[in-house]
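How a chain folds remains the central question behind the approach discussed here. No coordinates are needed to read the tokens, only the vocabulary itself. For completeness, the protein is quoted in full, as a sequence line and a line of structure tokens:
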Amino acid sequence: MKIRLFFLMLTCSCFCMTTYAQKLNIQWGKKHRVPTQASLQKVIGATGKGVYALRYNGGDLLERGFHELEAYSTDMNLQFVKKIDPQIGKKRARLIGEDAFLVGNRILFLSSYFHSDIDEQRVYAHWINEQGKFEGKHKIVSSIKTKTRLDVGDFYFDFSPDSSYMVILYKDFLHKGRMESIHLSVVDRDMNKVWSKKYNMPYKKERVDPHAFVVDEAANVYLTAKLDHKDGILFDPPFNAQPDYFFTIFSFFNSGKNVKEYRLTNDDTFITDLFIKASKEGVSGAGFYTERRVFNAKGTVFFRINPDTDNTQAVVTGKSPFDLRFIRQFEDDIKVKRQGELNNFKIADLVLRGDGGVVVIAEQQYVQEQVAGPPSGRGRPVHISYDYHFHDVILINLNPDGAIAWATKVPKRQITVDDEGFYSSVALAVVRDKLYLIYNDHIKNLLSEKKRKRKRTMTNPFRSITTITAVDLSGNSKQFPMFSGNEIRTITRPLLCKQVSKNEIIIYGEKHRDYKFGRVVFQ
């Protein structure tokens, strides 16, 4: 068996080198040791001098946790590691790291601090150059009045598509389930204030929760909320619950002076999932709708919001059911056959088309709890474990009117135990006229369709092979092996991979305490 697997891995490796060499150029850096108590947070981005990543170090008994900036050369080898420890004031107060972004050729590091003397929570912006050194003086980009340290809420950040504006959303601390208000601050790429606003939701405070938000290239902000028909937020509904809620979008135009609410309703359509993305013309969104259960999907809904329109009624511009032939591709799921709806699919991203349409990328994912108890069934559970399921990916191409141009399935089965899907899910790259999905797969799934009787489940990442599937403009897909974990002695972590240019994606892999970065260039 080991000989057969080795031969198959060798065959896949040679196939990748000979058949796909004209399209992919993969370069790995040297292997490094993961620092103790540290974990990679994100790939920040790439400049002409290299790639930058943000890692969090949990510290020890003598030192609290802190962030580190890692820089890698163009050949993906480590250049330096710099501790990010900004301090302010005469007492040298240590700030709490929030996030980091690449803006131009500089790294923007955001931190926060609660000033107990004035009961104010602030966000600070710090600039770091390509050598890892702080430049200039920090700026206060958001300040929120709070009652006590215990009332400090959370900050969230997002950039416009062209990086010309950044929005900072602050959610107040919840008192007995009540959300007091939200605070929005918009700054330009140099962190100069454009506008800010405190907004009280027009619903019962204990039942409203922001779902997602974006800022467009005109500094307009769009904020979604999910509410039941009693104007209440629906928290973690049971799996087989009947859908009885709606999505609404609050749009802040004209520097926050004009606020419009758009309820996303369309007859008896219940939207089960929603994803929005900013564009030059405003915001586009797509979601799934159901006629049965809250985790199901019978088809798609699609909408656009233009800042110039005064329409505050329903703005769903397209509703399209899935074709039955597409539904029948999911033959392993008996419920899908019986109900005619997909289930447990979560939208991961939207790719905006040039003509106003979008491509929806969604993945089937859920968690199952496994409880082992005593033979008699009495007493406390002996052990509780969690199975993490990351399965098929679907891509739905929607025309500007919301009609489905095509829908395709990328088959994938990943089940791991008690690891929170560490090596599961997919990375996405958009290169010219193709979409590329990168994920870890069972090695036998790379056999031809004629020889493959059923889809194998990837349960052991250490014996998996990193696979790439290319999807063209017509929805046709083709699968190729990239490399095996044994071949490069590391396993790709898809959710930490990042596309850094029009034809380049940075990939990251770990195996036990070792890690390394790789660069994939699409020729």
In short: The radius of gyration is 24 Å.
